[in-house]
Amino acid sequence: MRKQFFTILSLIAAMLLFTVPTQAASQDECAIWICLPGGFLPSGCSAAKSAMIKRIKKLKSPLPSFSSCADNPPQGSSRHMTFHHGFAAFLPDHRVCNKYADWTDDHACVEWSDIPSQYIKGTKCYHGYGDDDYSNPPGCTKTYRWAEVFIEGKLTGTTYYWD
């Protein structure tokens, strides 16, 4: 019975050795390529999300290179699956005045527009305090990080944002 247990354990270990890409750190890191476009929502993606967070904490890019996740990547395969990542300033839902009415001593807004929340990629949110109470870009509240996966140059899934 004990010998049978070790035989099964050896077979499982051998299977894992041959299924884990030799260049990538782990299967979980390679799973980021599949799970990130869906926002890590498909079941079974929690390990991939944890692997991405670990990579970021180690000051690595959010995803490993795609070629490190393929057993025998075809020549030029890195062009087929790519990713982009960076920082983005977050602007929450807000209203802006489109039209003012002026009275003798006062003016008031008489027409408003609702602006949905948005991320501005390629910039961070900066705040000034005291007499210089401002934000840049105007109205931003926080800086987030983002990543996107592309297949053949086309965005796959949605942009994933995190703080």
Core attributes:
two-stranded antiparallel ribbon; 163 residues; alpha+beta; disordered N terminus; 24% helix; 8 strands; four-stranded antiparallel sheet
Structure summarized in a few sentences:
The protein is an alpha+beta fold and 163 residues long.
Structure description:
This protein has 163 residues and is of the alpha+beta class. The chain has one domain (26-162). The chain is built from three helices and eight strands; from the N terminus they run αααββββββββ. It has helices at residues 2-19, 27-35, 46-57, and strands at 81-91, 94-102, 107-115, 118-121, 126-128, 134-136, 142-151, 154-162. α2 packs across α3 (46-57). It is elongated, with a radius of gyration of 24 Å. Residues 1-22 have low confidence and may be disordered.
Distance between termini?
Answer: 50 Å
Largest sheet: 4 strands, antiparallel
Q: Overall pLDDT, averaged?
A: 80
Number of helices: 3
Overall outline:
elongated
| Topology, number of strands | 8
Q: Helical proportion? A: 10-25%
What portion of residues belong to β-strands? 35-45%
Count of discrete domains: 1
Biggest sheet: strand arrangement? 4-1-7-8
Element-level helix/strand string: HHHEEEEEEEE
Q: Structural class of the helices, strands and pairings?
A: alpha+beta
Radius of gyration: 24 Å
